[in-house]
Amino acid sequence: MKIHRAIILVTLLALTKTAVSQLQSIEQCREVFDSFMPCMGFVEGIFQQPSPQCCRGVSHLNNVVKFKTPGSRKNEQGTEELERVCECIEIMGKADHLPFLTSAINNLPPLCSLSLSFPISVGMDCSQ
């Protein structure tokens, strides 16, 4: 009986830790979600052009992702902003029902008159 209770307790603790981790991820992604959400219709192929709000959001995310040195994944404050932005956009791509279109992703920077400082791809995997 004690072993059964211990297993239940360990399972509940693991589930609680996972739920807290997901809530923290959502909170850490709020800024990215707000900035990139106007782009979703474009990168999914629903709209022909990115909206001005999309371009402003991408520009904002570019400003968030600053490098200390070339190849560094950390900004001047030492936080891993590039990874955070990448992971949050990856969450958005996996949560939505439509996949990102390669052509739309490739057209986003020139249509917004900018270059991306963070990755966006059809099969995003920010762990690599």
Task: Give a short synopsis of this structure.
With 128 residues, the chain is mainly α. It has helices at residues 2-36, 40-43, 52-64, 81-95, 102-111.
Structure overview:
This protein is 60% helix and 0% strand. It has helices spanning 2-36, 40-43, 52-64, 81-95, 102-111. The chain starts with a helix and ends in a 17-residue tail after the last helix. The chain has five helices and no strands. The model is unreliable at 4-23 and 72-79 (pLDDT under 50). With 128 residues, it is an all-alpha fold. Belongs to the plant LTP family. Keywords: Signal. Residues 29-126 form the Bifunctional inhibitor/plant lipid transfer protein/seed storage helical domain. This is Bifunctional inhibitor/plant lipid transfer protein/seed storage helical domain-containing protein. Pfam families: Tryp_alpha_amyl (PF00234).
SSE topology:
Layout: H1 2-36, H2 40-43, H3 52-64, H4 81-95, H5 102-111
Helix pairs in contact: 1-3, 1-4
Helix content range: 55-70%
Query: How much of the residues is beta strand, in percent?
Result: under 5%
Average of pLDDT: 75
Q: What composes the largest sheet?
A: none
The number of distinct helices, counting runs of at least 4 residues, comes to 5
Radius of gyration: 18 Å
Signal peptide: 1-21
Keywords: Signal
Protein name: Bifunctional inhibitor/plant lipid transfer protein/seed storage helical domain-containing protein
Domain Bifunctional inhibitor/plant lipid transfer protein/seed storage helical: 29-126
